[in-house]
Amino acid sequence: MGSAKEVRLVSTTMVRPANYTSHKRIDLNSWDIKPLGYQYMQKGLLFTNLQQPLRKQGEETNNNGVGDMISHLKTSLSYTLDHFFPLAGRLGIEKHKDDDTISMYINCNFEGAEFIHATAEISVDDILSPAYIPQSIINPLFPLNGVMNYEGVSQPLLSIQVTELLGGIFIGCSANHSVCDGTSFWQFINTWSGICRSSNNYTPVCPVFERWFMNDTDCPLRLPSSFAEKFLKLKTPASDPIIPPLHRFVEKCFHFTKTNIARLKAAANSEVISTKENMLLSSLQAVLAHVWIAVTRARKSLNVNYNENEETMFGLMMSNRTKFVPPLPEAYFGNSLTFGMVIAKDDEVLEKGFGFLASLLKEVVNSHSDEKIKSAIQSWIKKPFILSSGEISGSGNKNLVARSSHRFNMYGNDFGWGRPVAVKAGSSGKSSGMTSVGPGPVEGSIDIEIVLPVEVFQAMESDAEFMEAFST
Predict the structure, then answer these.
(1) 461 by DSSP, 3-state: which?
(2) Which residues share a beta bridge with 114?
(3) Active site positions, annotated
(4) Using an 8 Å Cβ cutoff, are 180 and 333 in contact?
(5) Residue 226: which residues within 8 A CB-CB, separation 6 or more?
(6) Which of 163, 228, 266, 285 could form a disulfide with 358 if both were Cys (CB 3.0 to 4.6 A apart)?
């Protein structure tokens, strides 16, 4: 017998494009190749306002309307894959015997995206009520847990699990990060929900699948054949070894309202005296700086990962799309990310204020230019490398890294049942200090999800200055 919270499989189907059948090869560029050592990215949507009767406790599944819902989700997914057909393919490896190299590409062979229907004795309150995000409950709601992007040669590039909960539905999506980044992923989800909701009345976007290369001679990019061997050796990092075992890692979401964000932004800008152009601090920079100070202050109070003379890195995942000259197409489907970082000593973080920190984050964003991006690509081509999970956040260190974006349209995904009540992430890429940025459920709000030891969160929650940002 399984546990009461066990997720039970009902069916698994491979969903293929409804009409698109032209075979295509899409060569991966440097942005796509670097994440091969990451796990699949995972995002899920929780719905409670379904029209059909919801499953009751003890029922395997409620066939009154649920079967039609599942069938319609599959059909609409099939039509969506007509427009996003690479997600129905697999990764391919071509061996070049002339110079003992390999190249990676998306083989659009229509093997299909995976669609899983499941049930679970999990209520909506089990997900929403706890003070800390119950990852042990949420993880089984996602497929392909622990699967690495390089495994896309045999694994589906997209897997979707629709789980019937007690009082709701959870749609968990796992997508290969070498095929698309967050911008492209939400472009796909937005289109799928639109087609599901509106059928023939929805006009989908037209994704641009042609990858950007420095010049024609770089396509396909040739990698040392030893890279294929490295794929087999890449492993998910172990838990942070520096923090003692008594410090458990948990994840918590902090909700910043539009009003309180405006207050933080105004306060941060009032602290900054600068003659530089384009130095008006943004809402997100003010929020992230506020969080950075609170984490550092909490660590100091606990004497955990704090050293006044030691440096902490705050990393930012930044999109290249609008920084290029000319910009990449708005509908560019693939990866286009650059990692930027700010480094400051712990005593600087606490003494100079969050206006100072926000300005450091702003400087990183302003330095993110066409010239700098292309220079980094040229360096990578000369000496290619693959990042592994935990390498950026640094399993075993005190760094903070912000990923995702509050500009993604997450809460607008209405499949015909209304807006989701929550957006949750799977275990992919999570380690101490990993911070996920997302829009809040109310327009103009921002959600910040962070993974930290529970003791650090408890200290943050006792920090009046930090918690004042959440007062009404």
Answers:
(1) helix
(2) 14, 159
(3) 177, 414
(4) yes
(5) none
(6) 285
Distance CA 441, CA 13 (A): 32
Q: Which amino acid is at 257?
A: T
Burial of 461 (0-12, 13-18, 19+ CB in 10 A): middle
Q: What is the pLDDT of residues 399-429, one digit of tens each?
A: 899 999 999 999 999 999 999 999 999 998 8
Q: What mean pLDDT comes out for the span 21-40?
A: 93
* Domains delineated in the chain: 7-233 (3.30.559.10), 249-470 (3.30.559.10)
Backbone region of residue 254 per phi and psi (left: phi > 0; alpha: psi in -120 to 50; beta: other values)? beta
AA identity, residue 300: K
Considering only residues 82 and 272, tell me which one the structure prediction assigns the higher pLDDT. Answer: 82
Instruction: Residue 227: count other Cβ atoms within 10 Å of its Cβ.
Output: 18
Q: Using the structure block, give the residue that is written with the tokens 């979401």.
A: 253
Give every CB contact of residue 49 below 8 A, 6+ residues apart in sequence. 417, 418, 421
Whole-angstrom distance, CA of residue 372 vs CA of residue 363: 14
**pLDDT value, residue 239:** 36
How far apart are the C-alpha atoms of 315 and 433, rounded to whole Å? 10
294, 260, 255: which is closest to 463 by C-alpha?
294
What are 258-265's contacts with CB under 8 Å, separation 24+?
Answer: 258/442, 258/443, 258/444, 258/445, 259/472, 260/469, 260/470, 260/471, 261/286, 261/287, 261/444, 261/445, 261/446, 263/469, 264/290, 264/354, 264/469
Q: Which two tokens stand for residue 353?
A: 């204020």
What are the structure tokens assigned to 216, written together? Answer: 């024609």
DSSP state letter for 277:
T
Quick one: how far is CA 164 from the chain centroid? Answer: 23
